[in-house]
Amino acid sequence: MVWSIDKEKCLRCGACVSVCPFIALNMNEHGLKNDKEKCTLCGICQRICPVAAIKVEK
Ligand code: SF4
Ligand code: SF4
Predict the structure, then answer these.
(1) Which domain holds residue 51?
(2) Measuring from atom 1 of ligand 2, which residue has the nearest CA?
(3) How confident is the model at residue 17 (pLDDT cuts 50, 70, 90)?
(4) What is the pLDDT of residue 1?
(5) CATH number of the domain residue 29 falls in
(6) 14: confidence class by pLDDT, cuts 50, 70, 90
């Protein structure tokens, strides 16, 4: 079970942060961070990302 981000692709638009129902995503100066304790691997962030930078594998 893995959540991963392609930092080269990410535009830091924040769309994924806004849609995560479990508040598992945070954006800081180093980019996007996923909180493994909160993430349920629901895949919503993956579907909303305009550049397919997020990969969720169950
Ligand atoms: S997979 Fe679901 S729970 Fe995990 S960061 Fe994305 S939207 Fe949030
Ligand atoms: S939606 Fe995609 S491009 Fe936007 S911040 Fe999230 S991972 Fe980056």
Answers:
(1) 2-57
(2) 49
(3) very high
(4) 77
(5) 3.30.70.20
(6) very high
